[in-house]
C-alpha cells in the first residue's frame, strides 16, 4: 500500500461507514416513529429569545415571523435582547415595545450567552425557552412541530429543520444543499441521541434543565454546541423536529463563509479537547461518544490530508512543467527524491475500487440531501446547490480547517465576525 492509498482510502472508508450507519439508523423503528410523530396539540408556556447585536436589517422580519407562529398568544412570550448594538437595532426593537407579547431589553455588550441568560432569568413562567438568531425566520407551524419532541421527559432540547433563507448565488445554494443534508443527519442521529449541537436558529430547551445546568456559557464562541454537550454529559436527550422549518441568512461570499466556519470548527476543537474531551470515545455516551465525535475529528484530519495531497501533486506538476519548459536538467534530480506517483501513485490506484468508493460516497450524499428535503418539506430546487456542494465544498473547506487548527494550536482568539 503506497502513500496515497494510506491517505485517501481510510477517509473514504470512514465516510462510507458513516453513511451506512446513517442509512441503517434512518430505517430503524425509533427514527420512523420520529418522522411519523404529529405536531403537538399541547400548548405549554414558551419564551422565545432573540439575542441581537447589530442586526437592524433583519431583526424586524425575525420578530414578525415569531408573531405569526400558530400558537396561543397568551402562551408565547418573546424577549428581544439588544446586546449593546451600535447601529439602528435599538430603534427597531423599541418599535415593538407596545406589543403585549414582547419584552424589549437593552444591555451592554457581553456576548450572545449573556443575552440569553438574561431572558432566561426573566422568563419565570415559561416551561420552555427557545432561541432565534436575529437573521432567521420561522415557519408558522414550527413551534407546534418542535414542542412534540418534549413528550419524552428525558428530552432536554430539540433542534429544528434549518435551511438557507432565499438562496441566490452559488455559495448560498451550496450551503442550502449542506443544510438540507444536515436536516437528515440531525434527524437520524437524534434517534440514537447522537447530537452535539443545538443550532442557534430556533432550538428549544426545557427551562428547568437549563437552569439546573447553570445557564448558557461562552463556550468558545459556540454556546449552542457547549450547551448541547453539557446536556449530553448530564445524561439527557436531544431530539430533532424535521418539519419545524426555520430559514437563516447564510454567508454570501467565500471569505464570509470561511470566517463563520472557522468559528464553528475551532469551537468544536476547543470544546472537544478541553472541557468535554471525556465524551470522545466514551461508550457510556453511545453513538455520540464512539462514532459521532471521533468521526468529527477524523473529518477534520481527512480534509486537511486530502488538501495536502492535492497541493503536493499540483506543486510537483508545476515544478516538472517548469523544468521541462526551461530546459534545465533538474527533472532527473526531482525524480530521485519525489516518488513517481504516475507509476505507483494516484493514477495507478485500482480505478474500480477508488472510483467505486468515491461514487458511493457521492451518491450517498446526494440521496441524503434529497431525503432531507423530502422529510422536512423544505421548498425550492437543489440542483445547483448539490452540484456546488459536491464539487466546490471540498476546495473551500480546507481554508477554514487550516485556520481553525492554527487558531487552536496558537490559542488565537477572534471576534464574532473576524
Report strand order across the widest sheet. 3-2-1-4-7-6-8-5
Shape: globular
Q: Biggest β-sheet, characterized?
A: 8 strands, mixed
Question: Secondary-structure element order, as H and E?
Answer: HHEHEHEHEEHEHEHHEHHHHHH
Helix count equals: 15
Helical proportion, percent range: 40-55%
β-strand number: 8
Tell me the distance between the termini: 42 Å
What percentage of amino acids are in beta strands? 5-15%
Low-pLDDT regions: 330-344
Which structural class do the helices and strands define? alpha/beta
Main attributes of the structure:
eight-stranded mixed sheet, 15 helices, single chain, 418 residues, alpha/beta
Give structural notes:
With 418 residues, the chain is of the alpha/beta class. It has a domain at 1-38 and 166-192 and 251-418. Mean pLDDT is 90; it is low at 330-344. The chain is built from 15 helices and eight strands. The two termini are 42 Å apart. The chain has helices spanning 3-26, 29-36, 59-67, 89-94, 112-122, 142-147, 170-190, 207-212, 223-233, 254-273, 286-326, 331-337, 341-344, 351-376, 383-410, and strands at residues 46-52, 76-83, 102-107, 128-131, 136-138, 155-164, 203-206, 237-248. It has an eight-stranded mixed beta sheet with strand order 3-2-1-4-7-6-8-5, with helices on both faces. Strand 2 (76-83), helix 4 and strand 3 form a beta-alpha-beta unit. The relative contact order is 0.14. Helix content is 55%, strand content 13%. Helix 10 packs across helix 15 (383-410).
Amino acid at each position: 500500500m503506497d502513500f496515497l492509498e494510506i491517505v485517501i482510502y481510510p477517509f473514504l472508508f470512514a465516510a462510507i461507514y458513516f453513511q451506512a450507519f446513517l442509512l441503517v439508523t434512518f430505517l430503524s423503528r425509533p427514527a420512523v416513529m420520529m418522522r411519523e410523530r404529529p405536531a403537538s396539540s399541547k400548548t405549554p408556556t414558551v419564551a422565545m429569545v432573540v439575542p441581537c447585536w447589530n442586526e437592524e436589517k433583519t431583526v424586524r422580519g425575525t420578530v414578525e415571523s415569531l408573531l405569526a407562529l400558530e400558537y396561543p398568544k397568551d402562551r408565547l412570550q418573546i424577549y428581544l435582547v439588544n446586546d449593546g448594538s451600535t447601529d439602528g437595532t435599538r430603534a427597531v426593537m423599541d418599535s415593538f415595545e407596545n406589543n403585549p407579547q414582547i419584552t424589549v431589553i437593552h444591555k451592554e455588550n457581553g456576548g450572545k450567552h449573556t443575552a440569553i441568560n438574561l431572558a432566561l432569568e426573566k422568563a419565570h413562567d415559561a416551561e420552555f425557552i427557545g432561541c432565534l438568531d436575529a437573521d432567521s425566520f420561522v415557519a408558522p407551524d414550527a413551534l407546534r412541530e418542535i414542542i412534540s419532541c418534549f413528550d419524552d421527559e428525558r428530552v432536554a432540547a430539540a433542534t429544528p429543520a434549518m435551511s438557507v433563507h432565499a438562496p441566490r448565488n452559488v455559495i448560498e445554494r451550496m450551503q442550502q444543499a449542506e443544510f438540507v443534508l444536515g436536516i437528515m443527519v440531525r434527524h437520524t442521529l437524534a434517534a440514537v441521541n447522537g447530537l452535539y449541537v443545538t443550532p442557534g436558529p430556533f432550538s428549544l430547551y426545557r427551562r428547568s434543565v437549563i437552569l439546573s445546568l447553570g445557564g448558557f456559557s461562552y463556550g468558545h464562541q459556540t454556546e449552542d454546541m457547549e450547551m448541547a454537550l453539557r446536556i449530553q454529559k448530564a445524561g439527557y436527550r436531544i431530539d430533532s423536529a424535521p418539519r419545524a422549518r426555520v430559514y437563516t441568512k447564510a454567508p454570501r461570499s467565500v471569505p464570509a463563509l470561511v470566517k463563520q466556519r472557522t468559528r464553528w470548527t475551532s469551537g468544536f476543537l476547543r470544546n472537544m479537547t478541553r472541557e468535554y474531551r471525556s465524551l470522545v470515545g466514551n461508550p457510556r455516551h453511545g453513538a455520540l461518544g464512539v462514532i459521532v465525535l471521533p468521526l468529527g475529528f477524523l473529518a477534520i484530519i481527512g480534509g486537511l490530508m486530502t488538501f495536502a495531497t492535492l497541493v503536493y501533486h499540483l506543486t510537483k506538476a508545476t515544478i516538472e512543467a517548469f523544468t521541462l519548459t526551461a530546459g534545465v536538467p533538474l527533472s532527473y534530480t526531482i525524480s530521485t527524491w519525489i516518488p513517481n506517483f504516475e507509476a505507483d501513485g494516484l493514477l495507478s490506484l485500482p480505478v474500480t475500487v477508488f472510483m467505486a468508493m468515491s461514487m458511493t460516497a457521492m451518491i450517498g450524499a446526494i440521496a441524503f440531501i434529497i431525503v432531507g428535503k423530502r422529510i422536512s418539506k423544505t421548498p425550492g430546487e437543489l440542483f445547483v446547490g448539490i452540484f456546488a456542494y459536491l464539487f466546490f465544498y471540498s476546495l473551500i473547506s480546507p481554508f477554514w480547517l487550516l485556520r481553525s487548527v492554527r487558531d487552536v494550536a496558537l490559542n488565537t482568539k477572534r471576534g464574532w465576525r473576524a
